[in-house]
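Tokens in:
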């Protein structure tokens, strides 16, 4: 089972389904994981009912950071902003499906941190790890 998830991560890393940017967008946020050199930007389009209708990510870094971003984007399209706020660390770990040590956990959770900072309307540099605890 673990191998299946590893293959999924490598596939998402090499062939991301949702890489890109949206211009114009309603929400855009970016942040880094300095421990690993990962960078993620997420752009969202949100309709008048507060539903995320389109989403894309861009960035660079390790396979875990990029694959988790691609999986997160897939999850968030069609959700409301309130539902996006409820996505948890455990949801991301379920999507990835592998055990992660503390350093890799930061890689895996960077995209969720960026998403939540954007949805909560935080300013540049205000995203904190508390968003994903
Ligand atoms: Zn990383």
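Residues out:
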């Amino acid at each position: 089972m673990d191998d299946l998830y590893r293959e999924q991560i490598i596939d998402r890393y090499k062939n991301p389904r949702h890489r890109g940017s949206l211009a114009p967008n309603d929400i855009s946020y970016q942040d880094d994981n300095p421990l690993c050199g990962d960078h993620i930007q997420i752009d969202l389009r949100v309709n008048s009912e507060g539903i995320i209708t389109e989403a894309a990510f861009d960035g660079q870094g390790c396979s875990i950071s990029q694959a988790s971003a691609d999986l997160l984007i897939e999850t968030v399209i069609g959700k409301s902003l309130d539902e996006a706020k409820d996505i948890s660390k455990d949801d991301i770990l379920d999507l990835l499906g592998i055990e992660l040590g503390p350093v890799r956990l930061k890689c895996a959770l960077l995209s969720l941190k960026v998403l939540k900072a954007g949805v909560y309307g935080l300013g540049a540099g205000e995203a904190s790890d508390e968003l994903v605890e």
